[in-house]
Amino acid sequence: MYKTIKDLDLDNKKVIIRCDFNVPIQDGKIVDDNRIVQSLQTINYAISKNAKVILMSHLGRIKTEEDLKKNSLEVVAKRLQELLDTKVIFVRQTRGKELEDCIHALQPKEVLLMENTRFEDLNGKKESSNDEGLGKYWASLGDVFVNDAFGTIHREHASNVGISAHLESAIGFLIEKELEELGKLNHPKREFVVLLGGSKVSDKIGVIKNLVTKADKILIGGGMSYTFLKAKGYEIGQSLLDEENISFCKDVLSQYEEKIYLPVDTVVTDNIDEKNIVKNVSIDQIDSDLMGVDIGSKTIEAYSNLVKQAGTVLWNGPLGVYEVDAFAKGTKALLKAVSESSAVSILGGGDIVAAATEFGYKDKVTHASTGGGATLTYLEGVALPGLKNIAEKE
Description:
Elements: E1 14-18, E2 25-26, E3 29-30, H1 34-48, E4 52-56, H2 65-70, H3 74-84, E5 88-91, H4 97-104, E6 111-114, H5 132-140, E7 144-147, H6 158-164, E8 168-171, H7 173-183, E9 192-196, H8 205-211, E10 217-220, H9 224-231, H10 246-255, E11 260-261, E12 265-269, E13 278-282, E14 291-295, H11 297-308, E15 312-316, H12 329-340, E16 344-347, H13 350-359, E17 367-368, H14 373-379
Helix pairs in contact: 1-3, 5-6, 9-10, 11-12
């Protein structure tokens, strides 16, 4: 296990904590503060250890001057102050004299949040490209570094890898928990059942390659299922097709046919928005002018039974267009089945956690990952760049 914040001396130290405050914002208001809430344990621990706390995070993507206006962390600072019940000093800079002076003036137990790290992307993508000078500068502002942003741990940025190259570093409680929970998949209770949804096969190639040798069963739904069905020779009408990866699907099906489960029926429509036609059909009866938008009732029953027999369930990607109530039945039903199962259940970040939150199942599973791309990278079995400068415990 990697060194954690508990392994660092924080007393009277300037402690830089990289958080993930990349929260959804609409009309200037935070829609979901879960990522801020998830960071509180690490921040409060640093405060309790008499640290001078310096917080960093990105928010959205910064490509234009207009992005600077809509992606300021000021709204996050206000919500964080409410949640911590202590003053949060917000500095509208990512570098410069004002930031340096505010940090120099910090007293133990005080908290400072600097502006969106990706403001440095506007001219030269210095944050996202892990600019060496920027990482070194940010490191000069602190004494020790704690990476607690699991959502960016698969990226090599100046605010994680760049800083950790120059300071004694550790992980926070959130990353520690993520690694512990996802680590259960290395020695899963059998049967190990994987649910894979989402739109494109291309997004899941690495995950499929890594998990198909480890899982007992892989149940496929969502938009990606129609590419697999096409690979088996079915006509899929106007359903989503990842044409470039049909051959990959054919290869996986030929090698692991006994492990791969595909829908036997599907919900189809003529138009996602207007929904003049909505019906449940067998997968060999998809009309040429219709598109599949959810797994069908027989598939729901079959997949639910397999989940109930599982010892471990990993789920990444929704099984239909869950944002539209008429096409959310499959995702809802399987979330219910997973929540009622005695299996170790892990939701692999991104849209499936958003769906579980919306439908009230997020707190009824063993673990709902805060990462999207980070979780996928972990599931692919490749190294996470954000950890490379953090030492293992002795």
